[in-house]
Amino acid sequence: IVAEARGDGSTADSLAFLRDAADFRNIQLVEQPNGDFAQTIVRQYLFDAYSVLLLEVLSDEKMHGDATLAGWASKCHKEDLYHLRHTSQWILRLGDGTPESNRRAQAALEDLWRFTPELLTPSENLKTALGKNADKLAGVAQSWTSMISKVLSDATLRLPKDSRLFGSGGRGGQHTEHLSILLATMQVLPRAHPGAQW
Question: Which residue in 109, 135, 126, 112 sits closest to 25, CA to CA?
Fold first, then answer.
């Protein structure tokens, strides 16, 4: 969808495999390294919870008038519901498991929390796409806070206090060093063999 919308000859492969880190527009949360299992699960859960709620809004064509976007969002929403069920269950297992699993999950939450304000701040592109319905995005952020608060409480995990060291700028092309490392791994074959058919 994005490649077609750009109208510059881009393909899904060229966008994924031939752009440098500064050309990506993603939140910094999703580029954080896996670390231990708790780190991976907490990072994924925080993102899944928001993604499900956002895709629910985008699935409604009346919100933005774009049938293609609504169809894409609806398909992704079904997949993300599965991911959210999976990561929610793991949060409960880790948080309410052993003292060690609880400690690791809480440490991961404390470490990753600084990236959540960027997650909850809609991009200008998203606000433009929703137009007069952009105010619905505030409801997405509120629902996310309610959702994760309940799951974390059930998992005997504490919501971190807000940090002054917020991670932001990913949607503007400012990334952590982790994205370049991730892309180097992901892009090595397409860059080494340009034009190869997979």
Answer: 126
Structure tokens at 88: 């929610």
Task: Annotate 144-169 with b (16+ C-beta within 10 A) or e (fewer).
Answer: beebbeebbeebebeeeeeeeeebee
Amino acid letter for position 46: L
Q: DSSP for 117-181?
A: HHHHS--HHHHHHHGGGTTHHHHHHHHHHHHHHHHHHHTT-PPPPPPSS----GGGT---HHHHH
pLDDT in tens, the chain (198 residues): 677 777 788 888 888 888 899 999 999 999 999 889 999 999 999 999 999 999 999 999 999 999 999 999 999 999 999 999 999 999 999 999 999 999 999 999 999 999 999 999 988 888 998 999 999 999 999 999 999 999 999 999 999 987 666 777 888 888 999 999 999 999 999 888 887 776
Question: At 1, is the secondary structure helix, strand, or coil?
Answer: coil
